[in-house]
Write a structure and sequence with these properties.
This protein has a domain of about 120 residues. Helices cover about 60% and strands about 0% of the residues. It contains five helices and no strands. Keywords: Membrane, Transmembrane, Transmembrane helix.
Length: about 180
């Protein structure tokens, strides 16, 4: 199993849309904006889902997700502003509103990057577990599992020059018994 397969890409895109749209909607409402109608909200969710599906061809980290989240925050804000049920107005369009959107987008990107990494690890562990179960049951099926190389993170400490040249002074002094 791989995160690039279509069912998992759909799931990852749905999670992105489920995080981006409510966060942007709440920020829009807390900033004094009027509630958009159901059509702009659904359109924003569909656009966020489509963008996330297009970008979900492989695992993405924070540096890729941060601009995508910033763009989605901006786009959803503009969509909600244009589709609000009340007349369009400029609500708190100052620097504070954009700082809140930027902070939310960066928090969203960090959360999504960690979740994506955890999901990939979970899929790898499930693949290995399923392959082992098939081997134990002897189902006659061959499960192809790509072996992963794990690098040892601990190395033996290198001796410091001071430790190599230290003089051992254990025991009583030589002159004590003379």
């Amino acid at each position: 199993m791989d995160v690039r397969q279509t069912p998992f890409r759909l799931l990852r895109a749905a999670v992105f849309a489920a995080v981006a749209v409510p966060a942007s909607l709440l920020l829009h409402l807390w900033g004094g904006g009027h509630a958009p109608g159901p059509l702009p909200t659904a359109a924003g969710a569909a656009l966020a889902f489509a963008a996330a599906y297009a970008a979900g061809g492989r695992r993405r980290g924070f540096l890729f997700l941060a601009p995508l989240c910033l763009l989605s925050q901006w786009g959803l804000h503009e969509l909600f502003e244009a589709g609000s049920t009340a007349p369009v107005h400029a609500h708190a369009a100052g620097a504070a509103m954009w700082l809140v959107h930027v902070a939310a987008a960066l928090a969203q990107a960090a959360w999504l990057a960690r979740g994506d990494a955890a999901f990939a690890v979970l899929l790898a562990l499930l693949t290995v577990a399923c392959a082992r179960v098939l081997r134990v049951l002897g189902a006659g099926m061959r499960a192809v599992v790509r072996p992963r190389r794990f690098l040892a993170r601990t190395r033996l400490p290198r001796p410091l020059p001071a430790v190599r040249t230290a003089i051992s002074r254990r025991g009583p002094p030589r002159l004590a018994f003379s």
